[in-house]
Write a structure and sequence with these properties.
The protein has about 500 residues and is α+β, with helices and mostly antiparallel strands. It is built from seven helices and 34 strands. Helix 3 crosses helix 6.
Amino acid sequence: MLTVHLRITDAATNKPVPVRVRVTGPDGAQYAPLGRSAEFAGGRNEDVGGHLRVGRERWFYIDGACEVSLPAGVPIRVQAAKGPEWTPLDTTVTLGVGQISLRFTIARWTDSRAENWASVDTRCHFISPHAALLEAQAEGLDAANVLATPIPVLTMDANTYTTTPNLLAFSGQVSALERIGHAVFVNTFNTHPVLGKVALLNSHRPVFPLTFGGEDSDDWGVCDWADQCHRKGGLVVWVDAFESAGGVTGGESLVAAILGKIDAIEVCAKPRKAPLLPWVYRLWNAGVLVPLVGASGKDSNAIQLGAMRTYARVREEPLSPTPFPDKGGGGRHQDEANGDDSSLTPPPLSGKGVGERGSSWVESIRAGCTFVSAGPLLTLVVEGQSARANLRSPLDARVEIVANGEVVASGDRTAEVTLSEPGWVAVRATGSAGFAHTSSVAVGPIQRQPEAVTALRALIEQTREWIETQGRFANPKRKQTLLDRCTEAARKLEG
């Protein structure tokens, strides 16, 4: 075996770049960089970070170079990847006698940063900020958000303790770590087993409690989390939106969205029990234009950071935040949506790194200048009643324009349509290139669709029934507050 120095460089700069690598022999043997184990854990909260399991494949994150022990005289396959905007490297070499170095290049096929798109993973867990920064660089992410959340841990003394990894690294509105235009932020993930889950980003202080309900009383609320987060300058993202829990779909998170307290809905790379888009379309059809964000939900080495990501179009100066009704805010309701939107994206500006742009990607999310993607890059431009869509990907893909929940135009990579009625419009990708979807853009006043309002009202009634029959409240006023919020949301749906 030879100790070989492996280096991957950027074809444009000839400088080493962080990548995800895999080196295998003709017999399928997988060779790990020195200091790494060829096999590693893949369970939730098990040594997360620095490597990735994809089926039987084992990948390792490196900063552009590593040393690895390899056999000479046999074919060695070297693979390297760096996110959806780079062409993957896949080549086979045979080491000569005494050869101790391998040099390869990897190249971009596009650069969204030149058009002022910031790529962001809005949620991952249990990975250290240092490991998250390396993986963000290697997966082509401008920013990764590590969210602290409690988890029970069985220890050697046979007791189970609750711990909250990364809480002491909380960074809020400033990056916990940053390097060459890539940044890691540490915030919190706040959950109730039935009423809902929210990722609280960009909050200048943690919002407590991180959990309520379960074995504790239900004397708190998702709306309370949202209001506190907004008072601290933060962004509220609805996680696992419309997933059924305890016989309830939507929960108080839906109520919060209707009341304008949710800034975005997460589209996650992890499997769901029920499809998300039909409910998002119903919400938009009811006049609640909550933007979309993408997240990997990474909590183990079996999930790739940035597998689903947010692309947010940023400005040189931060966008003005959407007004926060009742000191909450965020998701654009019909009453706040701008019917004169000319484009999903603001005008292009200089392509600075995410660190130099500060938290402008946060305000871009709040303003709805986003699309979510597992690979393809989307563009939507609306001018008057005309909508144009464009899709870029090295793989086969089609683009669809969706208006008020219906596909009104489609094509290979491009599509255009003249909209026949006011409402909302969005673009989505289909095909082998992977899923992608823009946030919605209002085109004139939105006429609330009765079917959508009826369906959402039924979910609010589910939540009301749970509060009345299953919620456990030590303080009757807290119960009444939740019921009043349900009533207020139902009235707002009716306009």
